[in-house]
Every structure is written in structure tokens, then in C-alpha cells.
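Reopening this one. Same input as before:
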Amino acid sequence: MPKKTKLSEQTADRLYEMIADEHRYLPGSKLPNENELSEELQVSRTTLREAISFLVAQGVLEIQRGKGTFVAAQLPTAGLDLTALAGMRSRGRARDLFEMRLIFEPATAALACQRATDEELEQIRKKAEKVELEARIGGDWPLADQEFHLAIMRASHNEYMRRLYPIINGAVNEILQISHNRQSMQETALADNRMILDFLLRRDEAGARYAMSIHMKHLVHLLKE
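Same output, byte for byte:
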């Protein structure tokens, strides 16, 4: 089981997610008042204050006397910055990216089988359904697919893996834009996602690891064509 963390730390992590990953609160913007935010996060005001203090110390938030709490105009730079990959319009570089995902995402899927709550597994299932829907209506299925994989990352309860995935999303988007096999990638993603989801819902660690590994190998193969 994952190491227990204080509720204030979990709250700080969730608030950081809302800022950095979901862009609910943009740099320089003011957070809702204490009552609203504590209700949204379903924590006490004391816990919220501790979480805010932690993020202030990290340079993510700023408290302006008499005005309130604001997101920093410039968020701290992550220790590992892979966003430069987004500008590398090269199939070779694209293969490098998916090979890197091949290293850690199968392990993440296995961890999710161990650690995911029932609610998290239900969220993963809903994300998989969204990918199917977007593909069917000609919508933004790559974005929905990234949200599916991010939900698996979150369910692994591994902080480094979870923070790594959003960083590489820009690179994944760029690759899909230049790929001439976009339709094949869609068909592969849909079929593979069904397989991955089936193992996750059964909490089959070996199966989920294998399914995710096969998915990444399929994508690497498509990029070679």
C-alpha cells in the first residue's frame, strides 16, 4: 500500500494539480475564498491553510495582504523539463519518446492495479469510454486518450510518475500532428485501451503490465512505418 501522507499534503498536491495540470487557476489569478475552496476540496479550513502555507513555501502561491491568495505569476520550473521535445519534428525523436514511455508506463499500470481505489478505477473506465466517444464523433480523441493514461498515472499513487506524464503531453501532441498514421494510431489506441482497462478492472498486475507494454510497442511500430 502507498505510504500514508498527511491530509494537508494531499490537499496541497490536489491544489497543485488544479493549477499546474488542469489549469483551473491560471498564473497571477486569485484563488476562491477560504470557505469556497475548503468546500470544493472537501477539507477543513485548517487543513486548507496548511496546504496553502506549503504551496507558498514552494513558490506556487503568494499571499497578498488585504487581497487574498494568488497563483504565482511564474510557477516554479520543474526539475525535469521535457517540453523541449515538443519542438523536435522527427520520427526518430518520436520513437525515443514512446520508448521512454515503454520503460515506465507498464510499471505504472501494475502499480495502479495494487493501489487504485474503486472510485479511481471507475474514473479510469469513464476516461476509456470518453476516448471511444471522441473517436466515434470525430472529436479530440488524442486528448481523451491522454486523460485516460493520466488517470492511470494518478491511480499508481507514485508522485514522480504522475508529475512526469503531463510534462510529456506536449510532445505526444506534436507527434500525433506530424504522424501520417493517425488513423492507425486511433484504431490501435482504442483496441489497446480496452485490453488495458480489462486487466485494470480485474486488478491483474501482470496482465496490465503486459497490455501497456504491448500498447507502447504498437505505437513505436507505427512510427517506424
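So the earlier flakiness isn't reproducible anymore. For the record, The first strand starts at residue 61 and ends at 64.
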